[in-house]
Specification:
Layout: E1 2-7, H1 9-12, H2 20-31, E2 37-38, E3 45-47, E4 52-55, E5 71-72, H3 78-92, E6 96-100, H4 103-109, H5 112-129, E7 134-138, H6 144-148, H7 150-170, E8 177-179, H8 188-191, H9 200-218, H10 226-236
Parallel strand pairs: 1-2, 1-5, 1-6, 6-7, 7-8
Antiparallel strand pairs: 3-4
Length: 237
């Protein structure tokens, strides 16, 4: 199994973060019995002082360099990743994508319908590079802007409806797609540190949602012990 994380600022993380990618790496090491690699063209975090992906300052300095691989970017969405995914899948021989995208698209670039079309373009290019590729997709998790902007909240809800339809349309036995559930217990004041980006608790909740989808849909890994790990994260914080 060759996993590629694909996402926006919630996935790349910022200097000093653990990231949900790190939590997933921990989970797979603990529960997955087969060989796997984390692959992708990027390894860094976003550095706020430079507004660029230049930081290597993960919260755990022992997070192995090879496990830091990803295809994620601050301010990047389906619009940006669709042109990149074919080459990234081909070069890194990814066969499993864990994808969290859409919030930035709806916030700045495209409406729900246009964003859904970019999802289809993304998978057309990904499958051209790897016809038997599989993926788990996270719905858009409404952020603090959605809480105060009904129009934006409506776009998030509409896109999630379109995303579910797109996953159902594109899912095939040869190239299965799973739609993860929005993380249970995602409250902006505890699961995020700024109304959008995941806190340590939020990292666990995101990783747990992906892990549950993989375990239930494909029997990959085991259940993610969200309650235990998340409680430790809150106490540590």
């Amino acid at each position: 199994m060759r996993i590629m994380f694909v996402g926006d600022s919630m996935t790349i993380g910022s200097a000093g973060d653990f990231t949900w990618r790190y939590r997933m790496w921990q989970h797979l090491n603990a529960t997955y019995g087969g060989p796997y690699r984390i692959v992708g063209p990027r390894r860094t975090l976003h550095e706020p002082a430079e507004d660029a992906a230049t930081s290597h300052a993960y919260a755990d300095p022992d997070f192995p360099d090879a496990a830091r691989c990803h295809l994620a970017g601050w301010g990047e969405g389906w619009l940006h990743m669709a042109p990149l995914i074919g080459d990234a899948v081909r070069r890194h021989r990814a066969d499993t994508l864990l994808i969290s995208l859409g919030l930035i698209d709806l916030g700045f670039y495209t409406d729900a319908e246009q964003t859904a079309e970019n999802v289809r373009e993304f998978f057309a290019r990904a499958r051209a590079a790897a016809p038997h590729l599989r993926a788990v997709l996270m719905p858009v998790i409404p952020n603090v802007r959605a809480a105060g902007d009904p129009e934006f909240a409506g776009q998030c809800g509409h896109f999630n409806e379109l995303l579910a339809k797109t996953v159902a349309d594109l899912d095939t036995p040869a190239s299965p797609l799973l739609l993860a559930s929005e993380p249970a217990g995602w409250y902006l004041d505890t699961a995020t540190y700024d109304g959008t980006h995941p806190s340590e608790l939020g990292e666990h909740l995101l990783a747990g949602a992906f892990a549950d989808a993989m375990e239930q849909g494909w029997e990959v890994g085991g259940p993610y012990r969200v309650e235990e790990r998340a409680t430790r994260a809150v106490l540590a914080g």
